[in-house]
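Technical annex B. To support the medicinal chemistry partners, we prepared a structural model of the target in complex with magnesium ion, based solely on the information shown next.
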Amino acid sequence: MAGPPNSGKSTLLNALVQRDAAIVSDIAGTTRDVIEVAVAIDAMAFIFTDTAGVRSNSDDVIENIGIERAHNAFAAADILLWLGDEGEAPKHPNCIEVETKSDISARQKNRPRHFGFRVKVERGFRC
Ligand SMILES: Nc1nc2c(ncn2[C@@H]2O[C@H](COP(=O)(O)OP(=O)(O)O)[C@@H](O)[C@H]2O)c(=O)[nH]1
Ligand SMILES: [Mg+2]
């Protein structure tokens, strides 16, 4: 999971692994550590990795360490799920852009619509 703070990374991770593995809040910078959760989906093994939201203007020393660790996790990932603005993903050979919070309109979110994969994790999980 990669994206800016509050893009819904931890919410999506929890939905995919079906437990509250990561803390969800609307406070930017909540996730700092890299959180890895191993699950089997349809008999296929996955490790989902939640990361700190990437932003360049944090004064918080610990959050900045988390952001550095996030970049290391992106480099190590087989697949990068980018939950930020379209076209803004870090360079990765297997990147899937995901529009989160698809229950909220693009205008309200103040960001362009994605034309790929859309999710809403409001109550339960829908694609
Ligand atoms: N309406 C709506 N809110 C969401 C959705 N996914 C996450 N949120 C909310 O967005 C905020 C940030 O979510 P979080 O998963 O902590 O984002 P993260 O910082 O990227 O890990 C929280 O208040 C979530 O409840 C969604 O699909 N729809
Ligand atoms: Mg988070």
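Notes passed to the chemistry partners:
Residues 4 and 53 are 4 Å apart (CA to CA).
The mean pLDDT is 87.
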